[in-house]
Amino acid sequence: MKLEEILEVTMLLDCYGNLLSDKQRSYMEKHFEEDYSLSEIAKSHMISRQAVYDNIKRGIKILKDYEMNIGFLKREKEIHEELKRLKANYSESALENLIASFDI
């Protein structure tokens, strides 16, 4: 898995991790945030390495499905980019326009 993919999964885990089962969240947190190997996770839970791999792979798919349907992470990135543009070219009217664009 590439660094960009790991970063994406970590951010998705931050956004949607509480929607996973306790077991999946635990495996994924240990693997992506605490840098445990699949073998270390398997040994600590007394299951096979393949079971850990399958749970993590399923968890990643679930997180990506949540993002596709809900889009919190995409929205957060958009807001961050808008704020960076505002910082670079600040004006009262630009701020007001930005605030108006977020009104629902």
Task: Write a brief caption for the model.
This protein is mostly helical. It contains six helices and no strands.
* Gross CATH architecture of the largest domain: Orthogonal Bundle
Number of strands: 0
Could you name the ranges where pLDDT drops below 50 across 5 or more consecutive residues? Answer: none
For CATH, the homologous superfamily of the largest domain is named as Winged helix-like DNA-binding domain superfamily/Winged helix DNA-binding domain
Any descriptors?
104 residues, mainly alpha, Arc Repressor Mutant, subunit A, 2 domains, 6 helices
Describe what this molecule looks like in 3D.
The chain has two domains: 1-70, Winged helix-like DNA-binding domain superfamily/Winged helix DNA-binding domain (Arc Repressor Mutant, subunit A, Orthogonal Bundle); 72-104, no CATH class. It has helices at 3-16, 22-33, 38-45, 49-70, 72-88, 92-102. The chain starts with a helix and ends with a helix. It is an all-alpha fold and 104 residues long.
Write the layout of secondary structure elements.
Blueprint: H1 3-16, H2 22-33, H3 38-45, H4 49-70, H5 72-88, H6 92-102
